[in-house]
Amino acid sequence: MESLSQLFYLHGIGYEYTKYNGEHVVFSNATRSKALQCCGVDVTDQAQVDHLNVLLDANKWLQLVPSCSLVNAEQPAVKVRVDSRMLAQDCTVSFSSVNLPTVTHSLAALDCSGDYVFNGITYLELVFPLPSLPIGYVDAHVQVADIIQHTQLWVTPRHCYQVSDKKQSGLSIQLYSLKNKADLGVGDFADLLALVQQSAQQQLDYILLNPLHLLFCEQPERASPYSPNSRALLNPLYIAIDLCVDSSNNPALERYLHSHAAKEFKQRIQDLRYIDYSAVNQFKYAAFKLLYQHFQTYGSEQRKQHFADFCKLHEATLSTLKVTDTEFANYLQWQAHVQLKQCQISAREHGMSIGLINDLAVGCAGDGSEFLNQQSLFTDSAYVGAPPDPWAEQGQNWGLPALNPIKLSDNNFSYYKALIRANMENVGGLRIDHVMAIRRLWWCFENQQQQDGCYVYYPFEHLLAVLAIESHLNECIVIGEDLGVVPPEVKTALADKAIFSNGLFYFEKDNQGEFLTAQSFPSQSLLMIANHDVPPFFGWWQGLDLTLRLKYQLIDEQQLAQLQTERDIEKQRLLRFLSSCEAHSLTQHSDASDVYHAVTLGLAHAPAKLFTIQLDDLDEQTLPVNIPGTDQEYPNWRRVLTHSSEHILTRHSALLNAIHSIRTN
Fold first, then answer.
1. Same structural domain, 52 and 68
2. H or E segment to which residue 143 belongs
3. Which of 158, 473, 504, 559 registers the highest number of CB atoms within 10 A of its CB?
4. What's the rounded mean pLDDT across residues 313-334?
């Protein structure tokens, strides 16, 4: 049992946690064993357990250097592990990916940072100073006597990339929900381009997007951007047909867009409150085919070379596509990248300091191309979820396959590096959904026909280093969505790396349940009133989210009455929050618009460097885009805005000007 306990630790299988109600929970050996079994370990095979213990522990000390070495960019050094009997030898480090001279030091002259005894031999960890190195990944060879080993030096900056110390403001949107100018039923990059220019005129600094990940074109009603086909690829439905070069002088496309079928389609989707993804998908993909055919026939040599260059640069991610027509799928990815880049360039040219902020989902679907192409890195039958809470006493299973923390390090974490790099491309910021995933995730699995689960820990330092390095290489700020119970070491590490936390006003309360004052929010944070997982403010103030939960049988009449009483208490607390900002005459019966304006202006004074206004709230939406805990019951990820973005921003220009004035004074 002792060797199995050691393997639990070395494999990152958690031992205990504190439940939402303060209860101290210790995971059973059966639960922890199930987690190991999901990683392909036979816990009844003592020989395999002993072998893995040596592989994950002692073997690290039997190599001069690991396959990748974390290096502090400000005080560059690599840690070398040697048999203590070799101290009379010299150690040499040579570089193959940067033009720097070879460095040699005597082992005896190096500082010791640790030791390990194995089979009676003492191994020492020595700190080998290095010359100044560029931030990024540097290939190096380390030699002691006749032993030569390669390592990839991860030269890590002290902080993630930063744009400005000034307080900034921006919008958060669901791109698909924008009123589409082309009347094709779903917001696209042309709508985003227009919103960028309108936002810049209102002196906003950024637009926070929903995940733009590739979904399932063969199953268009699978609309959740947080359960994607692939997180390294873009959703072609966001391609704006009229922004494509191949839409010009394209008679076949013109005939299609003005055909009887097109008129029928537009009539079918006209004024729909929810997106008909099946109809939109069918219509747009037919148009995409005509764009692609025109490119094949009439595309210039220069454009075809640009396409070839794109395919070569993105070969690794494009190769994961599971499609019958690879060239067509690659063409759509090219067009999506071109248009996203166009939006970011426009944002910067119009004076937005950050521009677009992308959103990275915590996982991928178990039948998508990302999972199928990287299946060896994932567990068998373990899924990402959340521990028990007051709303789900059995815990939550999100149905997203869990990555094996040991396998994640394969090929110097190439999978994770590529994933982060892909999501930082052509944007100025990246929000990481459920950022606790870089430290620990709750795994769910079936155990004797009942839901079971535990926390599993990931190689935190390495994943954090990737974020810091890639943020500088891509000039991209990083935001970690840290809502809920977050381990203290995660909060500290995120702050140390200048990663923005994500405050949600609804959830930010003191021990008495009172809303925190505006001055309580830390400087290095992104503050917003609401997001995609909670009701928009107008629905919340009017209690419409509660009656909606009753409608979909998520609560009963008795629970509704209790929740309505609690909501009245919450509204009183909100009014007390407003009193801490300035004197007001608002009451529980005040118009939602008046209360929203007061809350927004009150929070604008917060020290948080990033203050985000939800476009849904400016449009006075009452229905949520998503109700957690539902799938097909409620039309999640489909609700569209009532007005055009131009109308919304023009109508609220006075409020936006007031926010800008507060934030810049």
1. no
2. strand 136-144
3. 504
4. 95
Whether residues 140 and 228 share a domain: the answer is: no
Distance CA 600, CA 498 (A): 25
* Locus of tokens 């190689």: 459
Tell me how far apart the alpha carbons of residues 306 and 331 are, in angstroms, rounded to a whole number: 11
Segment holding 660, helix H or strand E: helix 653-664
The fraction of the chain above a pLDDT of 70, given in percent, is 99
SS3 assignment, position 146: coil
Is pLDDT at 393 greater than 80 in this prediction? no
Task: Report DSSP letters for 381-428, one per residue.
Answer: EEEEEE--BTTBTT-EEEEEEEEPTTGGGHHHHHHHHHHHHHHHTT-S
Amino acid at 208: L
Q: Which amino acid is at 356?
A: L
Closest residue by Cα to residue 473 from 529, 548, 417: 417
- The pLDDT value given to residue 19: 86
Chain centre to alpha carbon of residue 140: 31
Joined together, the tokens standing for residue 330 give 């690659």
**Of 438, 447, 391, nearest in space to 628 by CA:** 391
- DSSP β-ladder status, 103-106 and 90-95: antiparallel
In a domain, 441, yes or no: no
What one-letter code names the amino acid at 372? L
Q: Which of the listed residues 40, 56, 72 is the one where a domain comes to its end?
A: 56
